[in-house]
Each structure stands twice: as structure tokens, then as C-alpha cells.
Write a structure and sequence with these properties.
heterotrimer; A alpha/beta (236); B mainly alpha (324); C mainly alpha (290); A: 236 residues; alpha/beta; six-stranded mixed sheet; 10 strands; B: 324 residues; mainly alpha
Chain lengths: 236, 324, 290
Amino acid sequence: MKLLEVKGLKAFYRQTQALYGVDFELEEGSITTILGANGAGKTTTLRSISRMVRTEGEIKFDGQDITGLSTEKVAALGIAHVPEGRGTFVRQSVEENLHLGAYTRKNKNDVANDIDRVYAYFPRLMERRQQQAGTLSGGEQQMLAIGRALMLRPRLMLLDEPSFGLAPLIVQEIYEIMARIRDQEKASMLLVEQNANIALNLADQAYLLETGHVVMSGESEVLRNDENVRKVYLGY
Amino acid sequence: MNRPNPITRKLAFSFAMLVFVGIALMFVASEYTAYQVTTALAYGIAILGLNILTGYNGQFSIGHSAFFAAGAYVSAILITFAGWHPYATLPIAAAVTFSMGFLFGFPALRLEGLYLALATFALAVATPQILKVDALEHWTGGVQGLFFDKPDPIFAGLSVDHSLYLVTWLVFVVLMVGAWMLLHSRSGRAIMAIRDNPIAASTMGINLALYKTTTFGISAMLAGVGGAFFALANSFVSPDTFNFFIAVYLLVGSVVGGIVSIPGALLGGLFYVFGQEYAEEFSNLSEMIPPPWVTFGVLLILMMYFAPFGIWGAIERGWARLKR
Amino acid sequence: MDLFLQLTLAGLAIGSVYACVALAVVMIYQATDHFNFAQGEMAMFSTFVAWALYQVTGSIWLSFLIAVALSFIAGIIIERVIVKPVENAPIFNQIIVFIGLLMIFNNLAGWFWEHTTKTLPSLFPKHGIESTLISTHNLGVILFTLLILGVTFCFFKFTKVGLAMRAAAANPDSARLVGISVGWMLALGWGLASAIGAVGGVLVAPIVFLEPNMMSGVLLYGFAGALLGGVNSPGGAVAGGLMVGVLENWARQYVPGGSELGLTFALILIVGVLMFKPAGLFGRVIIKRV
């Protein structure tokens, strides 16, 4: 059974339709990426899973239909969404942000251990643990957002354009850490990215979205070598 | 000349009809009813002002009782201490309250939504206290207030109450027509544009400050004229009459009648007077029934859920649906 | 000098009540972006409930605690049932709902308990301290308010729920993404605000006497205090409330005609702050991006 199965997903912002029947799935323990240009519907796809937009169609997590749930219930199921723009709690401290990520968890000791684990992945966050999160740089806030998602002990992480607005070196650093997270935590990830190159490096499976439709899918290697994809999205 | 003429035949006809209906009704109404309707119209004029300010221009006021009081007191003072004829005081009351509103409009420019509501709330709560101040007691009559006579009948053979009703009705209809013309003119569109998207409006060249302060002035002026008629109808003013609750009553009338409408003001005024009367009779039926204002509070809340555009708004929407 | 000290201390006492109201106003504002205009009437109603309980139990403290608990629950229910339907509606609709609540509570109190003035005994013993500078009740008010504020501060800073409430207020979308039920956090905010309002009511009743219009002036001063201190800062709101209390007392004594113009003074304060320093003395300016 797939961890995530999406069939015939349509999404609407008021009267405007953004997704026109999208199908994809994700195996547990794998990383799947959804690529596409601006406005293709990538963010909308993630928001559909988190129940933040009106949808029609099927979304099954671990075999369970989640379309009737509220956003907070979806999170409680173990889906951690790192939103577009990071979604940092800017007035709270770094450590408070991490504690908030663990809101649904009961065991205080486990939570404390996990905070240490996050700091192990992101030493920069530990240096700034009491600092107000809004004063962190873009890259650090992205690290914090990922760290916060980890605090949920998620079965599935949804990541919305982690590379957005960040310098290439930072992007590389973050993606290296994400690879380590994948190896050590066995986390499944659904990664949405405009930067196709770096996403295809990390992901196992890939889908290409254009104006609300899936136009291509397959293993990352396949997409990477496809001539159209190379020209339009990879730049060579 | 491409500008549409706001004075249409329909408008002129409606104006004539309203005046006619008003006069006709007078013959069947008792003096007490005439008095009640006069009060309703006085409120209606003030509510019209509130509708223009909040419904059409988007500036909140939960303190219009202050301008209502000002108009009432200006009239009362001129009648009592300067011996003026009651109807002659109306233009002065209008001018004074227009200025008050216009001036208040300046600080209001800086305040948005909730904050403006708060400032007007403060104004309304402070009004009775200002009216009771010792230093002004000679003019305001202090806590006791001022008593004076109702205006003499304008035609012989008419009772005092009927005559006052007639005058109030005529003024009300004229003001309604004036409001209609204003709102259907280029200025009216500017006023509404400011409500819908102030930033877009200003980039289109609309002078926000001028329009907003002037609208505030007009709105306050209408409240003041309404207040003046209210004073005349009751031949009495006192500070505690014009407390914050008057502002609430105006709001209720506005909301129930339909805040983005002109006829709604008439409905609102009538609702305030007659709705209250029936609600009081209803609550007197049994000790188990709560006082009118509890019911009205519930009504206000329910209207916000189900009919935020009031009775007139519901009528307009129903009509639009029928036509489709 | 004695007079000045007496005035200042009395000002701090009434200011503590304003601080409670200011805190309740700010809590709801921070969580929901609403000014609850009905806060005063709700607090007044709670105080009447305390009075009614006192008639039955004879213990002012017991009545007080029950009334506060009931207010807490009522605040939660009101938010979930009455406020929630307009939570995404235009601001005007929300304001009207609050005004509706105001009318309901004001008139319900008048209906249940009539408009005669009632006396509510002080929570604090009559002959606690012998001092000409300050009455026992006033001293009790100041200390008790500080206690409440301290507890509230600790709640928000050190508990998980307090953190969740702050997060839900600051960034509801992200809060949902970590599993926080934002709706219930709003309700909790209203519950706490109502409870604090009830505390303010019971503290002020022995000073101004209990009748249905008791709180309208107090609410205004509470708003003035909240604005003065900074409507985005709970600590600032409290400081603002205290300042308003003291300033009002000083004005009453030292400004000619000042004794009658308290509310006018509050009005001027409100309009002045809104115009010249909308963030208040201690608040942060929030910049809205267009």
C-alpha cells in the first residue's frame, strides 16, 4: 500500500480552478518531487493534502481518506507541512518554534531528545536557540521550518520550495541535510520545487505539473534525461 | 453631455408619490401617532446619515449619538435663549453639526475600521458628561436640560403634532432625494470607491481626505438635523437622553433597515419606534419574556448571520432574483 | 504630600481594575483582531452573578471563584457559538455582533436584577491595614491584580497551551499545520478574557457600586489604557491601565473642572493616542504591506 495516493484531484480557490484532475502516489520511505513553473499548481497540491483549499477527488494517506479532515487533524496523523514562505512563528524563539512543532506529541522526554536531534542536523539553530525566529536569515528560517516539521515525528513531510529565495550554497547545505534526514529518519517526503535540478538529485520519483495537469511522471533519472524537461526546466 | 442625469423621471415621480403619501397618511393618523412617526423620521434622518457614512463610504461610527445630541442642543439653545423660531434653528443645527463632523473627519482619516469605531464609541460615551459640565450649565441647562414649546402649526386648523409631522416628512423626503442624487453622481461613485478600495481610489485621483471628511460632515449634519427634529418633537432635551445607547439605536435602525440603502433609513426609523413599542407590549405579556432590547440584541446578531443587508437589502436581493 | 500619595495610590487601585479590563481587551484583540465592545457588559453581568451567589452562599470568596469559573465557560461558549459565524465576515458585521452582545447583557442584567444599586462586599477584610494613605480594599485590589497578571504572564510564557495560544494568534495557518486547533484557542482566549473581566468587575464593584451601567465608563478607561500602553502588548496594556487610573485621579484633583470630565479625558486620550502614537507607548508598530 502506498503511503499517499491521490486520484483525480481538483482544487479550487473560490470560483477559480487550479488543479484539473491530478494523479500521483508516494511509497513509504521514498522522496517524490513535483516540478513545474510558477503557477503550475505545485503549492496548491500540497495545500490540498493539508486541507487548506477546497478540493474534489481522492486523497488517501495510509489507505485512509483524509479529505474530510481539518488541517490540524491531518497534521496529527503525521503529515508535516513545511509551507511556502517557511511559516515561521516570527515572534517566538527558535526553541519555542520547535516545541510548537511537537504540539501533538505527549512524551516530554522524547520531545527533548528530538530537539537535540534537530540541533544536531542544524547546528546553526542551536547557536540561536533563544533568538526571536523572525530575526533569522532566510536560510536559517528554512532550516527552522524543516526542524519544526521533524519535531512532529512525521511519517510524511511536505516541503514547499525549500530552495526559494536562498543563495545556492545554502540551498546545497540544506539539501545535503535533507538527504541525511532521508537516510537516518527514513522519512518520506513530497517535495515541491521550481529548482528542478536539485530536486531531481534528491528525489526518487518525479511528476511534472503544467497549469494544473500532470504532463509527465516517472523516475527522476527518466525526467532528467528527457529532452524537453532538460531544455525547459534544467536549462541545457 | 455624456454624464447621466441623476434627476430621472422615476426619481421625480417617487418624490411626488412620497410627499403625497405622507400628506394622505396624516389625515388618518391620530396626534399621538403623528408624534411617533415624527420621532421615527427624526431617527430616520440620522440613520440616513449613518448609512451614507458607513454603508456607502465605509467609515464606522458607533457614536453618532454625539452629533444627534449636538443638533438637538443647538436647536434647543437657540429657541430657549435667543427666542428663535424652531424651524429657523434647523439650518444652524445643520451647519454646526456639519462642521463638527467635518472636523472629526480629520483624525478619522488616520483611523481604520476598528480603531475608528473605538474613537466614535469614546465620543458617544463621553457626550452626556460633556453636556453636564458645570461651566456650560447656563447654556445647556445642566442635568435638568431644557424645555421649550413645539412649533406652532404651519396651517391653521392643523394640530401641533400633525404640523410638525408634515414638516419633518417634507424635510425627510427632500433629504432622501438629495442623498439619492449625491450617491448616483460622480461624487457618489467616488464615495463608494473609497469604501471598496481606498488605495485604488486614491491612485485614480480621488482626493481621499476631502471626500472622507466631507462625507463625515454630511453624515454628522444629517444626524444633527435628525437630532433637532427629535428635540422639537419632544420639546425637551437633557444630557442623559443622549447617551451611548442612542448610538446603538441608530445602528440598529441602520442595520435592520439596510445599511447600504436610502429607503432603509425610513424602515430603520419606523422599526426603532414601532418595533420597540410592539416589543415592549410583547414583553409585558409575561414576566417570562425578556425586555425588548434583549430581543433586539439577538435580532442584531441573527441579522448579521442571515441578512446583513437589512430589510431593504433583502428586498433588493429578492427582487433581483425574481427578475432573473 | 499625603494627599498626593493618597491620590496616586487610589489611582493605582482603580487603575488596576482598568488594567484588568485592558488586559482582557488586548487578549481578545491579539488572538482575534477584534475589539470586544461587549467586554464591559459581560464583566458587569459576571459581577451580578457573583452578587447573586453571595446572597445564597454568604461567602464572597466562594461566590467570586464560582462567578469567575462560570465567566470562563461562558466566554468559551460565546466565542464558539456567537462569534464564530462571523469570524470571516466584514469587520462591520463583527462590530454589530459585539454591540448586540452588549445590549443583551446590559438588558438581561437589568431584567434579572433591576436597576437598583446593589452592594457587593470587598474580597478583602475590612480592617486589614490601618493606614491613612490607602484603604485595605484598594491595597488588596492592587496586589490581587498584580497576582492575576503574574499568573497570566506565566501561563502564556511557560505553558504549552499558552504558547499554542500565542502561536495561533500570531500565525493561524502555521498553527494549524502543527496540529493546533486554532478555533479552540480563540475560544480559550475569550474564556480567559471573560474570566479576567469578571475579576475586574468584582474588584471594582465595592468602589463604584453595582448596577447595570457600572462598567461602561470602566470599559472606556480600559480601552484608553490598552491603547496608551500598546494594544499589541499585554504588559503595555496593563501599564497603560495603571497610568490611566493615576492620571484620572490627578486630573480630578488638580485640573479645574477635572472631577466631571473623566470620560472626556479618556476620549481625548483615546483619540490622541490613535492619532499620534497608534502603537501606544510600549507596543510595536505593525506595518501592513499593500
